[in-house]
Design the sequence.
């Protein structure tokens, strides 16, 4: 572990990688301008299987309610709320009130990054299974 930390520090010192420290997790990204801060936030959420399924579900069904998301993904309503709090905090999801219900949509700023990130994640998954 100390060798890994050393090499990561050297890569950061030479500006080869950048890091994103959020929620007690330190993530590293190539520092060639490949990923903007917004793209890094999207990629962070796509690493979680449940969050990725939620995002795909909302892309396929914009305006889904909490219960619709829960039914699609197969998780509880409170779990949806927990994930949505993280996603709205990173400005990936926006909430709209529809009477008593809350509807979820992908924010316009994150839509392009999200679609590209999902394709990249699926490509990696396909390549790892071959």
Sequence:
């Amino acid at each position: 572990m100390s060798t890994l930390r050393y090499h990561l520090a050297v890569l950061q010192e030479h500006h080869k990688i950048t890091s994103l420290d959020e929620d007690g997790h330190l993530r590293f990204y190539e520092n060639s301008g490949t990923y903007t801060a917004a793209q890094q936030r999207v990629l962070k959420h796509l690493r979680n299987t449940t969050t990725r399924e939620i995002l795909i579900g909302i892309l396929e069904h914009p305006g889904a309610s909490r219960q619709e998301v829960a039914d699609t993904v197969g998780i509880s309503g409170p779990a949806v709320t927990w994930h949505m709090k993280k996603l709205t905090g990173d400005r990936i999801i926006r909430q709209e009130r529809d009477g008593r219900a809350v509807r979820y949509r992908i924010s316009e700023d994150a839509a392009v990054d999200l679609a590209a990130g999902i394709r990249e994640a699926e490509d990696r998954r396909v390549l790892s299974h071959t």
